[in-house]
């Protein structure tokens, strides 16, 4: 197949066998996996303690979905976990609320390890539905909930920002015990009607949010990452990208407005190079509505050239600043403005502010930096 990359990666040595995986990938989507086993004279053995309550969540529609050839759980994860004696529960998504139900039903008195074979949205649904009933002033005394994100979605922003760029490599490192566990930051957006959503990647208005809303078109949803390009063309040609937004008493007009926690939004796309997925800090990246289409496109596409640690120079058309504590934003336009001006994307969840208004707090969104969000001590495996 044109554009397809085929490669073989070592996974683990166990019971006198070298276990490898041959993968075929086209862009960010995997078309097939094959488990390879070869006898070896290597006598080294894994000396690891099986995790308590190991759960594998396979979001079967993530990326381009699962087939007999690219079912990573059935082809790779299950046989390898069986080889090394790790008991586990697998849950393959059957409906839109499968992941949220799993999160709600977890026993907060026991530690869990959850492997996600998914994209970002499933992890967002999971985190937003964890128990938050108890009041903890610290992480002490909480059971641990450890997350391993294996990148099998379309964007994989969080996984790639944590250096999980290939599901085989990351699963192999997990099995061999060579990943590091760290806590990670979470944020909450609170809307005028008190509806709230927890996020850990991006909250956007303007171009990015409009593009993700447009991608819900059934014809575009079939196209993988190509749908982003097609949707972007539609937005740039047909939308009035002029959002007047007040952030902490500073008013700006934006075509692109995003609060970002991760450097990457895709594996090769790094719009916020100073962001760190493990650091409690949001970066506001804004591009002015004064930019013409060509210049706005160039600014947005710069994310494909950015390297970690690069500084984005601010000027009259570019805003790049960080926030480390709670703040508010206010949209400075009336409720009869075009509906697309109220479109929001929050870690893949699509929201319209018009559906969450209250007359006395109209157009205001409050952002909280969460210190002790869940009844679990949340941690993530990273490389």
From TrEMBL:
SUPFAM superfamilies the UniProt entry points to = NAD kinase/diacylglycerol kinase-like (SSF111331)
Domain DAGKc: residue ranges: 49-195
Query: What are the GO MF terms of this UniProt record?
Result: lipid kinase activity
Q: Name one GO biological process term.
A: sphingosine biosynthetic process
A Gene Ontology CC term for this entry? membrane
Note one Pfam family from the annotation.
DAGK_cat
Name it. DAGKc domain-containing protein
Q: Which organism is it from?
A: Zygotorulaspora mrakii (Zygosaccharomyces mrakii)
Q: Lineage in the entry? A: Eukaryota, Fungi, Dikarya, Ascomycota, Saccharomycotina
């Amino acid at each position: 197949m044109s554009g397809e990359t085929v490669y073989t990666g070592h996974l683990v040595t166990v019971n006198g066998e070298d276990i490898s995986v041959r993968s075929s990938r086209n862009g960010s989507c995997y078309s097939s996996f094959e488990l390879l086993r070869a006898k070896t004279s290597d006598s080294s053995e894994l000396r690891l303690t099986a995790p308590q309550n190991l759960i594998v969540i396979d979001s079967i529609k993530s990326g381009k979905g699962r087939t007999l050839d690219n079912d990573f759980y059935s082809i790779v994860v299950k046989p390898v976990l069986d080889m090394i004696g790790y008991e586990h529960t697998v849950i393959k998504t059957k409906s839109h609320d499968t992941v949220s139900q799993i999160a709600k039903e977890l026993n907060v008195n026991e530690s869990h390890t959850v492997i996600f074979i998914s994209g970002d949205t499933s992890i967002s649904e999971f985190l937003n539905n964890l128990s938050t009933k108890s009041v903890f002033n610290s992480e002490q005394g909480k059971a641990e909930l450890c997350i391993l994100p294996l990148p099998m979605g379309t964007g994989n922003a969080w996984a790639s920002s944590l250096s999980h760029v290939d599901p085989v490599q990351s699963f192999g490192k997990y099995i061999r015990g060579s990943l590091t566990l760290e806590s990670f930051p979470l944020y909450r957006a609170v809307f005028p009607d008190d509806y709230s959503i927890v996020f850990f990647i991006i909250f956007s208005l303007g171009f990015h949010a409009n593009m993700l809303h447009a991608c819900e078109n059934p014809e575009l949803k079939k196209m993988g990452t190509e749908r982003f390009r097609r949707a972007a063309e539609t937005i740039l040609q047909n939308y009035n990208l002029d959002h007047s937004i007040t952030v902490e008493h500073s008013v700006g007009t934006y075509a692109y407005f995003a609060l970002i926690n991760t450097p990457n939004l895709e594996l090769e796309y790094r719009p916020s190079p100073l962001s760190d997925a493990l650091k409690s800090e949001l970066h506001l990246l804004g591009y002015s509505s004064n930019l013409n289409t060509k210049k706005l496109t160039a600014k947005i596409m710069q994310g494909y050239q950015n390297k970690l640690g690069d500084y984005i120079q601010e000027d009259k058309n570019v805003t790049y600043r960080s926030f480390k504590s709670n703040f508010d934003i206010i949209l400075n336009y009336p409720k009869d403005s075009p509906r697309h001006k109220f479109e929001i994307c929050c870690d893949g969840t699509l929201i319209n502010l018009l559906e969450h208004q209250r007359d006395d707090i109209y157009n205001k969104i409050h952002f909280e930096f969460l210190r002790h969000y869940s009844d679990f001590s949340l941690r993530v495996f990273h490389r």
